[in-house]
Specification:
The structure holds two protein chains of two kinds. By secondary structure, chain A is mostly helical. Chain A is built from twelve helices and no strands. Chain A has one domain. In chain A, helix 1 crosses helix 6 and helix 3 packs antiparallel against helix 6. In chain B, 33% of the residues lie in helices and 30% in strands. By secondary structure, chain B is an alpha/beta fold. The chains are: A mainly alpha, B alpha/beta. Chains A and B meet through helix 1 and helix 5 of A and helix 1, helix 2, strand 5 and helix 3 of B.
């Protein structure tokens, strides 16, 4: 099938840069260690902050390091290719192919995410398991399966937002300003900087309702067993609703771009 | 029925420019007519050269023909459908090669790009194998299939791109500057291939180029566009005749001599034993050469073809 072929090709494309991967795993691990000690100090002062205990906090840190690249919190992934192709005009080639562009790029991004999960995700996780007694794996099959599902939804959500940012290049010619802003928002509202659950109200409620919560907070809470049964389904449903809204918006933006905007260059 | 049918085709771009002279941030809206009232049609199996100077509107036309740019005026049908409304459907029936862009995947071996295209265009596996084998042989790509595209030379990449555009048996192939940057040998091989393609598969070719030899080798018909409007549509010989362009016969005499006088040609320049004679491009060189050889002791002869840019410039200075 086409989309599987696209995903495996993108996976292979990323896997050609081994040096970058090794350096990345090292960086994730260093930050993981630093954050773990910082969080442990924090939870030592307030042992039940956000409903987490010290062990939850350390586990949360390492889930965050594993998902940083997988979910492409900062930006990156195939949407960066898109923005670059809009800038150079190569997007013209994507446009005359008889396949939907969004599905094409999404499939590629899932391939990329799979690669980053297997390397930049699993690498630091193994280290965490070796170094920290506090690090825990999911406590039930339900939590493990829920986490995997939630993670896929997280990647798609992040893709949908990055897609919108990249498409801005159709009008602005360059996505980099917006990409930086979007990256900063994502870093903050995904829970990568601090778990959303320890935000003071009303910020906590607001942040948990936003699409960025999908990136890390939701999958992490499922891993930690904080959301089970119906609540787990509600968490997944919320991710799904945001995906429907954002991908729909992305499709609309693409359509108006292809009809109205001049394809650059050539 | 015509494969391509353009009637009064136009595309206008709106550009905002800073007001000259005035020190304000206000921008003036300005309309640029990239293509303006162009009418032509192409029958199946034709090989058409679509030529014109830089910025004449060639690429804009190609983009409208593929459906990635919406015309602002006129009517356009390709293979019976309106390109911009049926872009995806049409994409299965056309092939496009951009000399300055690639449809191949940069980091992947050539083979992977072809396999992806098989899936994109849903090419039947048997047909795919057959086409791939044929093009790989014709374009001598056999040794390159496992090389990542980024490591290919320009000529190799171009052959890869042409294969990529043809795997799904398109009815029409658009080539936008296919020989740009290629060396003489590669250009020759490419032209040979395109001729074979047209003869054996009946693929309609529409190519834009700056290289007159591309046109001479391939196209029975040329369409000249300049400043967005159609300047000429007909045979290449007719274009030369209409533009009044001249070929040049360079004669090296055995000894220095006064200006040669033969019917049908006039001397433009004399430099020692070498003389330059002009004669109309649509006339045969044979009588001129015969007349010169009959009356003078000739050491060597060569003929220079007019440059396409010159022909078009001539065409314009006359109209």
């Amino acid at each position: 099938m086409l989309y599987v072929a696209v995903a495996t090709r993108t996976f292979r494309r990323y896997s050609t840069y081994v040096g970058a991967t090794v350096a990345g795993i090292f960086t994730n691990s260093v930050f993981g260690v630093i954050y773990s000690f910082a969080y442990l100090a924090l939870w030592d002062q307030r042992p039940d902050a956000g409903g987490y205990d010290g062990s939850d906090a350390v586990t949360y840190v390492w889930i965050g390091q594993a998902l940083l690249m997988t979910v492409a919190v900062w930006g990156g992934g195939t949407t960066d290719d898109l923005a670059e192709r809009i800038r150079t005009g190569d997007v013209a080639i994507d446009l005359y192919r008889p396949v939907g562009m969004m599905g094409w790029y999404l499939a590629g991004d899932l391939g990329r995410a799979a690669y980053h999960l297997l390397t930049r995700g699993i690498g630091p996780t193994v280290l965490a398991w070796l170094l920290f007694d506090q690090f825990d794996f999911p406590g039930s099959v339900q939590a493990a399966l829920g986490f995997v599902l939630s993670l896929v939804l997280a990647v798609v959500t992040s893709f949908a937002i990055r897609w919108l940012v990249a498409c801005s290049a159709f009008w602005l010619l360059d996505q980099s300003g917006l990409r930086m802003m979007a990256g900063a928002l994502a870093l903050f509202f995904s829970g990568m900087a601090l778990p959303l659950v320890i935000f003071p109200e009303p910020w906590r409620t607001i942040a948990l309702a936003l699409p960025w919560a999908s990136y890390l907070q939701t999958p992490a809470d499922i891993w930690l067993g904080k959301r089970e049964g119906l609540d787990l389904l509600a968490a997944l449903a919320q991710q799904g609703v945001w995906i429907a809204v954002l991908l729909g918006l992305g499709q609309l933006v693409l359509r108006s771009a292809t009809r109205k905007v001049v394809v650059q260059g050539g | 029925m015509a494969l391509i049918d353009a009637t009064d085709l136009s595309r206008t771009f709106v550009v905002r420019r800073k007001d000259a002279g005035r020190r304000s941030l206000r921008r003036r809206r300005e309309e640029v007519h990239a293509v303006h009232g162009v009418t032509f049609s192409v029958e199946p199996g034709e090989m058409v050269g679509y030529i014109g100077p830089n910025g004449a509107g060639k690429s804009t036309t190609i983009k409208m023909l593929t459906g990635i740019l919406v015309p602002t005026g006129g009517r356009l049908t390709v293979a019976g459908v309106e390109p911009s409304r049926h872009r995806t459907e049409l994409a299965r029936r056309i092939g496009v090669v951009f000399g300055q862009r690639t449809t191949l995947w940069w980091d992947l071996p050539l083979r992977d790009s072809f396999e992806l295209l098989q899936k994109i265009y849903a090419i039947e596996p048997a047909r795919y194998r057959e086409n791939l084998d044929a093009f790989v042989t014709l374009l001598e790509l056999g040794d390159l299939l496992d090389t990542p595209v980024r490591q290919l030379s320009l000529g190799q990449r171009m052959r890869g791109d042409i294969t990529a555009a043809l795997l799904h048996d398109p009815e029409v192939l658009y080539l936008d500057e296919p020989t740009i940057g290629l060396d003489v040998v590669s250009k020759g091989r490419l032209r040979e291939f395109l001729r074979t393609l047209n003869a054996e598969r009946g693929t309609t070719l529409l190519l834009t180029t700056h290289d007159l030899q591309d046109i001479e080798a391939l196209c029975d018909r040329v369409i000249v566009i300049d400043h967005g409007t159609l300047a000429y549509d007909g045979t290449l010989a007719g274009l030369h005749g209409r533009g009044g362009s001249m070929r040049t016969l360079v004669v090296d005499l055995v000894d220095e001599a006064p200006a040669i006088s033969v019917p049908g040609a006039s001397v433009r320049r004399v430099e020692g034993p070498r003389q330059w004679l002009s004669f109309p491009a649509d006339a045969s060189a044979a009588p001129v050469v015969a007349a010169v050889a009959a009356s003078y002791a000739v050491a060597d002869l060569s003929i220079q073809e007019p440059d396409i840019e010159d022909v078009i410039r001539e065409l314009y200075s006359r109209s």
